[in-house]
SDR family oxidoreductase (Streptomyces doudnae), 509 residues
Amino acid sequence: MNADDDRPATLCLVTGATGYIGGRLVPELLDAGHRVRCLARSPGKLRDHPWAGRVETARGDVTDAASVADAMRGVDVAYYLVHALGSGEDFEATDREAARIFGEAARAAGVRRIVYLGGLTPSDVPESALSPHLRSRSEVGRILLDSGVPTTVLRAAVVLGSGSVSFEMLRYLTERLPVMVTPSWVHTRIQPVAVRDVLRVLVGSADMPADVNRAFDIGGPDVLTYREMMTRYARVADLPRRYVVSVPMLTPRLSSHWVGLVTPVPAGLARPLTESLRHEVVCHENDIERYVPAPPGSPIGFDEAVRLALRRIRQADVATRWSSASLPGAPSDPLPTDPDWAGGSLYTDHRELTVPASREALWRVIEGIGGDNGWYSFPLAWAVRGWLDRLAGGVGLRRGRRDAARLRVGDSLDFWRVEEIEPGRLLRLRAEMRLPGLAWLELRADTDDDGRTRYRQRALFHPQGLLGHAYWWSVSPFHSVVFGGMARNIARAAAREPARTADEHASVG
């Protein structure tokens, strides 16, 4: 209940809860005393979040008017935190239609406020001259402002926080390249903002007066060029001095491929970001302070934001990452469960071994797979496959893991995504690499009738067209090395796992 009256707590609808900002906003809203309903295409991806039991979930998509209308029932404040970034040439039309549907549904449901996190745009550049990404973010804000529902549009430039796509791009470029040949956009002035300040303002916007219907610029206290950001990052991270040489002829397309090769951010996602960096993005007002006053120590400066993000990364305490949300166009079909599946061919590679270790020890190895631990077989083959995927515009192997020891449904894991996890027993991964078909990898820790630990592994592939069949048969001669080696090495790694106490066993489940 609210502190000042007996009205029920504000009900907030959060779209994009499986994404970077949305996944962090939900617990902040709950801690502020609000009720939360999450709209998600796959609500199961929210299942393993620490706050999952405290929220309502609604299945749907912002492009589906019926599901949005259903999710809006009884909602007081609706957060719009989705966009079609990197989803193809028609992403502007998709964003436009989704914003229209959202605004109309909010108005029909009597929602008292919409809150939208958009992009900071330069005031002296016509909208037609903006990058497609910034132009679309601006248009979405305008559609929501015109929806008839009082709307708060928050416009931010680079968001700094552990796991944000902007921070990861800055981090990897700086850490991996002591000498950098960079595009000319490294001289563009930017006003970055810490993710903590973004969340603070998002939460505070829920209580704005009904007569407020406008956009607000939000940013930190520092205005820096991208070059200065890299230099200061290096200093905060205790790296040797970095040398930066800009090359004007690097186009946004070439820049995106350069970023894609050096950082975990795939070229398809890097391109709209680098295109946006052509424009100076600096706040022109700070009116948000009138409605959401900053507490002492806020907004957080660049150096402190970097320091906080690095601390989270080193402590393996990253709540969400840029890759938390599925990439547009990535395979999303669940594993077929019908053994006589009528969807066409389903190729399978099955491996099974008895493991001289406890089931708990085997599970720790299974759940720790990928990232820095690798894939337990033929590292060169995995590396080559990752590089080929990057060259084809895919995600490659460098997304790594959100947490070094624990996984949850929806986590990205190199070029896989966790589709299902039963702690202590099953890990099922769905491939997000570029393939002529759909692929899954299933790892199980079981116990047989004699009480022995059994490791069971299945790789499954549903080919699409003749090319898909040809792909499977062309790589099948290597399966004994890749998948057979993986099974043997996982079993060996489990046998080397140290024993745990009874209490630790119970926590593993």
In short: Confidence is low (pLDDT under 50) at residues 328-333, 336-343, 501-509. The two ends are 36 Å apart (CA to CA). The first strand starts at residue 11 and ends at 15. The first helix runs from residue 20 to 31.
